[in-house]
Every structure is written in structure tokens, then in C-alpha cells.
Amino acid sequence: MYNRAVVHAHTALFAEFQADLQEFGAIFQKGTGEHMKAFLILEDGTVFAGTSIGSARDMISEIVFNTSMTGYLEVLTDPSYAGQAVVMTYPLIGNYGVTPDMESKKAWPDGYIVRELSRMPSNFRCEGSLEDFLKEQDIPGIAGIDTRALTKRLREKGTMNGMITTNEDYDLEEILPRLKEYVIGDAVSETTCRERYVLEGSGLRVALLDLGAKNNIAASLNRRGCEVTVYPADTSADEIIRSKPDGIMLSNGPGDPETNISIIEEIGKLYQTDIPIFAICLGHQLMALANGGKTYKLKYGHRGGNHPVKDLRDGRVYISSQNHGYAVDASSMDPAVAREAFVNVNDGTNEGFEYAGKKIFTVQFHPEACPGPQDSGYLFDRFVDMMKGGA
What we know:
alpha/beta
């Protein structure tokens, strides 16, 4: 004996399962479809072969690597990567797709380099695939290469320029001179906001100078009740001072800090006031340059979410998020002007200053993280306390 209703129910479930299986198969076939060949050519003549992801146009840029295990979307939308192509050292990228975690309105790297790109992302917040995002943003990429070998070469020889191309008939003799000639241009003016805007708040008023700022810097202040007015990078110090802010934030940003001559001059004027100032990354470097310091290019930079820094106030070590290719030479700073406040535990490079007789402190790392740990988020609280009259 059998129950006809049960059989019919099972038959219907089986038919539904077959339909789902066919749909999954179509998605799988689309996700694993053929991709054209692509090549990464370094300025030392090394060539890596892989497959093209994203835009198929040729791209020449500075090749840098990031050691973050998650947060690839925040990396892609960090304006500090303008003029660079990013190698992700973690082998599988894109597994949770594109989520609402962008640090700016668009992607900034010139190119994107991964070992394996996930074709079928899975996350309840997923709004699309990373490959489609790269195409929409017109960013050339390459997958399927040995990113471990590439990273080792960049660590041994230092950051190099490179090209991503889908042209199988590339001419090394023609390409290599072009790679050696490439330099990052005026990236700050490219990434800064075009006009002033305000994030409303009910507390202290902060003026944020946007040198290529990540969204989470303003958001971190806004969450603490601050009203944040964001200014373009070419805003004069006089305009900021006239607005009578309770504090000034100098943001992160891309490029060689020494090229920002007019901005350095305006930051020098801000230094002369009694307004509390907190500076991050490029802002930290520009404040040092405005006070007689020197910067230099690191061999391969610090980029990732796992860099230990020591707070010299109490000797405590924090794991930090970092993204920079330049550093301040601590020995170039007059100790009567600034005291070293943070150092990198891995290589001893400078990670921050406190300025004597001023309510000013600066850090090379990213206390707002995204991606990365939140260990040093307390620095925003320190800035708020400083604006309220604390030490």
C-alpha cells in the first residue's frame, strides 16, 4: 500500500529540486566560463600569466601588495590606492561578493591582482560579484597567478611598476621603458571632494580636510556626536579657521607627500593656531613636513590589517590597519617641536607624533580601520577629549 498524496508531494519536491539544480548549473557555467589570457609584466622584465578579470584594457601602474584577509571592497574603495595596482596576498578573494561597505563612491586602484577570484559569492548582504564590480568600475585585473611569488619579488626588490595586458603579442622591449617612466601624478586633487559638505551632529564641530579621505574617518567622529564639515584639499587655512571649529582632522590620501607643496603651507598655518588637530596617514606626513620633517619612500610599504604599533605613552602594542608607501624620518624632527608617540614594532619606523605645546597628535596608521582591527579606535576618543579641553 502507498499513500498517493505523499507520492505526489515527493514528486513535486523532486521536480523543484531538479529546477533548482538546473539553475545552479547555469550559474556555475556562467561563473566558470572561459576568460581571456592576461599578463602582468614587471619593470624588471618578470612576466606572470593568468586570466583577465574586470576591464580588458591595458594598465600601467605601481604594483603594491595588501596582506588583509578580508575587506577587499574597502581596499578597492580606499582613495589612498589612487595610482597603484593592488596585489591581494590572501589566496581567495571575492567569496562574499560586493556588500554595502564602500569607503568612497568609487574604486580607486588602477588594477587588481589575485590568486583566485570567487565566481559564486555567498553572503546575505551580497549585491553582486566582485568581477562584475571590477568591470563596472573599468578596473583591469588578473587572476590565476602565483601571488606568493609576486609578493616575495616585491619584498626582495622593492615596489615596482607593472602592466596588466591581454595582448598576447606584447613587446617587452617597447613596454619596459614605459614602465620605468611611470610616476603617480597629483593624486590628492584627483581623490578629494569637489565641494564642502556636512555630516550633521549635535556635539563638537570638526573640520575635516579631505586629502583622499575614507568615509569611516568622518563616520567615526560622527558616531561620537561630532558635526563634521568636510573640506576639499585645496581649502585655505583661513577659511577653515574662520569657521571656528572645535577641532581639525587631516585625512589619509595617496601619493608622495612632498609633492603637496601648497597644502603643506596651509597646514603650517593651521599648526600656528590653538585649535586641536588629529592627523592620519598622509595628514600625519604633511604635518611633519610643515614643521621641518623629512619623508622617504619605504621599500615596499605597509598595507594590511595586521601591523603592530607601540604606543610610547604606556608601551602597549596595538594591531593596526595600514596603507602607506612613505614614512616620516623621526630623526629629522626637532624634539622641541614633536615627540615620537608611536613606532612600528616590525621595523621600527615612525608611526606618530605628539607636538610640544600644542593640542596636536598624528598617526601613520588607520584608527578608523575598515578593513582591519578596531584596537586603536580609542584615538578618536582622545581627540574628542582634547577638543573638550583635556590633555
